[in-house]
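Supplementary Data S3. Sequence and structure tokens for construct A.
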Amino acid sequence: MAQQLHKRFSDAQVKGLTAHYLQGEVERRHIQEVLGIRRRRFWTLVGQYRAAPAAFSL
């Protein structure tokens, strides 16, 4: 069974990847592969980050 996302990556790591995606520097599929998540979870994280970048937390 895979570990939960917050146990594998820090908030700062996920925040950085999400910011790079929103700036067009990294593709969505690459981030999904790195984080080991599916498309729905990815878009949930992007939505949370867009709503409050400074307060983003897993």
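Construct B, processed identically:
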Amino acid sequence: MPGEQSSEQRMRRLSWRCRRGMKELDVLLQPFFEHRYVALSAEQQVSFEALMAEEDVDLLDWLVNAVPAPAHYASLIASILQRP
């Protein structure tokens, strides 16, 4: 089915985006995507996809709590930090 194909492609593309090239980010983002992404609500999935479009330095700052995450990412960042 065409819808399943595009969904599969989207998942592969998003999985690739979780590989950031910074070990610290890879350790947090890849397991979250692999184990918990599918259980997120549609709204949370959209938020995660937007988060993956952010710059690595910003993601790192937010995930290590060096800088407070923007409010629209706060709950998602907290979920990622809970680890699978």
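The radius of gyration is 13 Å. The domain at 2-82 is CATH 1.10.150.250 (DNA polymerase; domain 1).
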